[in-house]
Amino acid sequence: MDIKDFRWVFMPYCLQRLSNGRYIILNRDYKPLGTTSPDWVEYETHPSAVRMSITAKTAASLSTHGKPDTDRIFLYDDGSSPANGAEQMRAYMEKLSRLAMYTVKYED
């Protein structure tokens, strides 16, 4: 049995833009949030994929390294993991609070 902390499974690690322009929010295992199965997941058809308007400036503000890449936005890495302490957790929560203000569109 594989054991991971709550953050690993249920909290956003990165935002992945799909070929159709939608985004899917992935956990630390690159699975949609809450997914614990090791089975392959087809991002393009997963029901959690949504439309979001993310600019390069927004991507840079969310990215752990300030990258303006809108294709894959990492909210943290091993060095800046929210599990590493209060400062890293605060930075991560600030990013989540900004994301919480975004609107999403479910259908194409």
Task: Describe, in plain words, how this protein is organized in 3D.
The protein has 108 residues and is an alpha+beta fold. It has one domain (6-99). Helix content is 24%, strand content 10%. It is built from three helices and three strands. The protein has helices at 6-10, 56-62, 86-99, and strands spanning 14-17, 23-26, 72-74. Strands 2-1-3 form a three-stranded antiparallel beta sheet, with helices on one face. Strand 1 and strand 2 (23-26) form a beta hairpin. The N and C termini lie far apart (38 Å). The mean pLDDT is 93.
Sequence-ordered SSE layout with sheet pairings:
Elements: H1 6-10, E1 14-17, E2 23-26, H2 56-62, E3 72-74, H3 86-99
